[in-house]
Amino acid sequence: MQTQLLGNTESIALQNNTLFIKTFQATARVWVYTPTIIRVCIRKNFDEADRSFAVIQKPTSFPSYTETDNEIELNTSALKLIIIKSPLRFNFYTADGKALSEDDKRFGVNWQDARVINYRKLYPDEKFIGLGEKTGNLNRRGSSYVNWNTDAALHGVDADPLYKTFPFFIGLHSGLTYGLFFDNTRKSYFDFGATTDDEMSWFGADGGDMNYYFFGAQSIREILQDYTWLTGRMEMPPLWSLGYQQCRWSYMSADEVLGIAKKFREHQIPADVIYCDIDYMDGFKIFTWNKKTFPDPKGMIDKLKLIGFRLVTIVDPGIKIEKGYKQYDEGFVNNYFATYPNGELYTTSVWPGRCHFPDFINDEVKEWWGAAFTALTEPGVAGFWNDMNEPAAWGQNIPWLVKFGEYYMQEIRNVYGMEMAKATYNGTKKLLGNKRPFVLTRAAYSGTQRYSAVWTGDNAATDEHLLLGQRLVNSLGLTGMSLIGVDIGGFMGNPTPELMVRWNSLGVYTPMFRNHAAQGMAMREPWEWGEENEAIIKKDIELRYRLLPYIYSGFYQSTQTGLPLSRTLAIDYSNDENVFDTKFQNQFMFGDSMLVAPVISSELFAEVYLPKGEWYRFGTNEKYKGNQFIIADAPLTNLPVFIKAGAIIPMQSVIQSTNDKGDGILELHIWNGTTASEFVYYEDDGVSYDYQNGGYYKRVIRFDPQGNIVTLSPVEGDFKSKYQQLKFIAHGFENADKSLTIIGSW
Ligand code: MIG
Known about the structure:
This protein is α+β, with helices and mostly antiparallel strands.
């Protein structure tokens, strides 16, 4: 193996707002994006294009810097970057000189054959969080990970890699925070002191550049805001996608789909979405319908609409090789498929049989793919589920020399799924006119939040997977993703009734609430569990619908700030050691004010950690001081959820789907507190893009415990609220009704 360390500086130049530093081995470039975001890119092959699939922003002007014999010092209002000239090293500090992250003096950036690695100093108390969909603990210190999008069917609770790549982590030490996004799409590696005896952390990739963005804001909220400024934020999801979703591999016919949907209405269990998994197609050919089992897709979807259901259908990337099949013929004639280097088309077998794979990296192919969705949008499909886009070839690695246009598999594997989701999103958005499409993807890379929701793939019907699923959601929330689901109940295997009930109760607090099961598993729908369990499941789903005004406002926050709906406690309590304790690491905030403690199905009590402040048990309003461990009751009917003192939570009456108008009353629940609090209430029509042109209803609701005054700010936007009336419900007050003073009206 050839090892090459980055050596001494030979020349320095500032050109086009870029600082160039040349050494014998490579050229480093430095850009400043904002005072808290600095990019460093060190590369050997200078003629390669500088393409990012993730980043949507451009650098700004380069600040003044000073140079001595040994160093270059660059200052922004928030950061100091000291570049040691010989050998070339990059060290980041706060503006007042506290070390945030420094290269390892000895090894810094180096190449090991084609691999590029950065060894960085590891601080004694340093913790790491992030990397998105990764198993393991919240604190990733002492662990190592690989990013290589993988169809991880039947994965265990420690498996790595899974389906997605988010090479972005946040470091915490000495009371400081920083973020680092390694924007390299090759197979990549992160080691947070797992194998270096606590001396170094390191990251790197099988090729490409040492290309990273350093984030120096001093809170996790601000780092997420910066990261999602750089890579984009989600748009408002369709409101219906936040309701209950019922899925299965597969409902086998239109009759079965309609039968299941009707049963929800008969049982008065709220639901919005039903899915068609792969069996709706004709021989698994994408953009076709099975004429026998789904003879009249439009007729079926019209009937679904009448009872307030939306249909989501699955699409896989593999295009069946079959003359006369439109997608095959068009793709073949236009050279839209992946090839071997000699130009022959690459073939492998997936569901439809022998297939070719669209080159989603190519924008023309994206357009073509997007336009083909008429086969689904014309009959009225509302959401588009992108599966198998790692891409999967029955769980195997596709040969590295397969080419997608100018790129090799090994260069773009990790972005293939995101590019498919992008093609799906842009295409269906065009076809649906002013309606928001719902896209759900399994594989992803940084930036996917701009196009799609994600789910965590094929989990199993076990308690361990329930807890793992929550950690994956919490960790994905540190990557700009907010609309995240797990297969409630577990994909493989049959949950016990207790596990089903428990998992469903956690689903209320899962950003995307979808029940899904694999082929061959027992039926999973809410009425399959006996009357008593059905009643609990129903009550929990009703609670989800009651919370929708709060949840929708929470997603609005994601669109504005990049803050996820489900938040690891590390976001707001980063300096509290207890939140990293493996006993409590699954706990999370759901929106601003609800702390949820996941509990496995066999335990009816849970040890819960309540961080600083005051908390109320949701439902009973029993009050607790924060900063303590408590034993909470956790019967299957009552998942431990705690409300932060001062919380303002808008709720509505139970509805059967988001199509229902309800009773027109918005309940404003307010829990007593000691300091002033506020909630940004947001509403729009839930389906169109009008909100991007002022069609929304937004106001800040403030609660001041001094005098118990609630103030409603003037309305922003020109949408008329669907609620005609406000009802205040006060919790934790003595004589609440008499003592709340309301300023402003709905
Ligand atoms: O080879 O479409 O993760 O949710 O039900 C399995 C069938 C393919 C994997 C997905 C799963 C879906 C299943 N798919």
